[in-house]
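MODEL INPUT / OUTPUT PAIR
PAIR INDEX: 1
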Amino acid sequence: MPRSIGQRVLAGLAAALVVGVLAGLASRVLMRLVVLVAGGDPRFSLVGTVFVVLVFAGAMLPGAVAAVLGGRWSARVLLGLGAAFLLFESVNIPLQEDRTQIMEAGGLTIALALVVLAAFPAVIVAQSVTTARLARAWAGRPGGRRGHEPGSPTDVRLAAPRTGGPRQ
């Protein structure tokens, strides 16, 4: 049964919020690990954590809404822009704040910091993919490629077998 535009937008908002909260909390843990690796004192406020979570959710919000309203390319572009923003900020901020401590600590600390910093892109890519899929699922939209939904004429399960001869 087709859902109304309002229900689909609400599904996109909910998906962006749920996945954004999880990704924001994961990134906050990674930020704490960067500070620990650098030898700093990991003090984080509740207000700062809430801000990080809201930024992570807000960055995916336009893409999630576009995904449920049917714009595949616009959703990909908006999710990609949100992910690019998050990637830039999540790597740039720790390097600005902890760069001196990391560089003075030596080779092992630099290697550990790079491993932790490399986890940020994984979290952000997983967030953007999961946000789009969850938004489409909650909105009742198919998640497959256009024209390849189950039951469509181009569904490979319904396609006639090829005979190997030239097409006429």
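PAIR INDEX: 2
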Amino acid sequence: MLKKLLLIFGVSIAPTYTPLSIKPDNPNIVEVLVEAGVSCDSQMMQKLSRKRKRKEIQLDGELTFKALLLARDEY
């Protein structure tokens, strides 16, 4: 299931960085997804960002939020 979620975000299974700056071996992915809940809270998604600038972290959260909603709706 985790591999499928990572692929939905465009995250390769290889240890590389992604457009959302989420590393596929991040041990917090499942925890953050559960905490984000049904609404896929974008602020929770920011916890997965590896970026340092506040604006970039917020953008990561928004992009992840949109990807999760799309994946959930298509599922």
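PAIR 2 NOTE: Confidence is low (pLDDT under 50) at residues 12-18.
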